[in-house]
Design brief:
Blueprint: H1 2-16, H2 23-30, H3 34-40, H4 44-67, H5 74-102, H6 108-134, H7 144-156, H8 170-183
C-alpha cells in the first residue's frame, strides 16, 4: 500500500502540484482511506520527502556503480553519468520534476537529509573532475567546483524539455552534451566555418 500511495502521489503532484493535491485525492486514487495514509505517513509533506529521497537514493546508487568501475577512464565515467541522468528522464521523469519543482515546500527537518544526498552526488561528480585533471584527461587549470555546477545545470534541466521518444535519442543527446562539455562549440583555431560546405570561409 505504501508503494501505491507513493505512486499515486507522484502522478498527482506532477500533474497538479504539491500544494493543490489533497490527501483525500491521493487515497481515492488507490481506493484507500485516510487512516491507511496516516499509517504510513505523518503528513503529505513526509510523503513528498519520501518521493525526493527515493529519487536521490536511486541516482546515488547508479552514480556509485559507474564511479566504482576501475577499468573506465574519467572521461568514460563522465559520459556514463551524463547518460544515466538523461536515461532517467524516460524512467523517472515525473519524480525528477517533483524533486526540482516541489522540494521548496519541505521544511528544514525534511530538507536536511535530501540536501546531504544532493551534496554527496555533487561532491562525487566534483571528485571525478579532479581525478580527470590529475590524470591529464581534463585541463589542469579548471575550477572543478564550477565545472561540476555547470554539468549539473546542463543535465538537470533536460527534464523540462527533453522527449526521449522524439527526434534525438538519449545516447545522441549524451554525445551532444559530452562533446560540448569536453570541446565547446568553437572550432579548434577559431576559424569561421561555412555552414553549407563545413569548410573555413577564408
Amino acid at each position: 500500500m505504501k508503494d501505491k500511495l507513493r505512486e499515486a502521489a507522484i502522478e498527482l503532484f506532477e500533474r497538479k502540484g504539491f500544494k493543490e493535491t489533497s490527501v483525500q485525492e491521493i487515497v481515492e486514487a488507490v481506493g484507500a482511506t485516510k487512516g491507511a495514509f496516516y499509517y504510513y505517513y505523518k503528513s503529505k509533506e513526509e510523503l513528498l520527502s519520501d518521493i525526493c529521497l527515493s529519487y536521490m537514493d536511486d541516482l546515488l546508487r547508479q552514480q556509485e556503480r559507474i564511479l566504482e568501475d576501475a577499468g573506465a577512464s574519467c572521461t568514460e565515467k563522465l559520459w556514463e553519468i551524463v547518460y544515466m541522468v538523461i536515461c532517467n528522464i524516460r524512467t523517472r521523469k515525473k519524480s525528477a520534476r517533483i524533486f526540482f519543482r516541489e522540494m521548496r515546500h519541505l521544511a528544514d527537518g525534511h530538507l536536511e537529509e535530501i540536501r546531504a544526498k544532493r551534496r554527496l552526488f555533487r561532491k562525487r561528480y566534483e571528485q571525478l573532475i579532479r581525478d580527470g585533471m590529475a590524470r591529464g584527461e581534463f585541463k589542469a587549470s579548471l575550477n572543478a567546483e564550477m565545472i561540476t555546477f555547470g554539468l549539473l545545470g546542463i543535465t538537470n534541466w533536460s527534464y523540462y524539455w527533453f522527449q526521449p521518444d522524439g527526434s534525438i535519442s538519449e545516447r545522441e543527446l549524451t554525445e551532444i552534451y559530452v562533446d560540448f562539455i569536453l570541446h565547446g562549440i568553437r572550432t579548434p583555431d577559431g576559424t569561421e566555418i561555412n555552414k553549407e560546405t563545413d569548410r573555413p570561409l577564408n
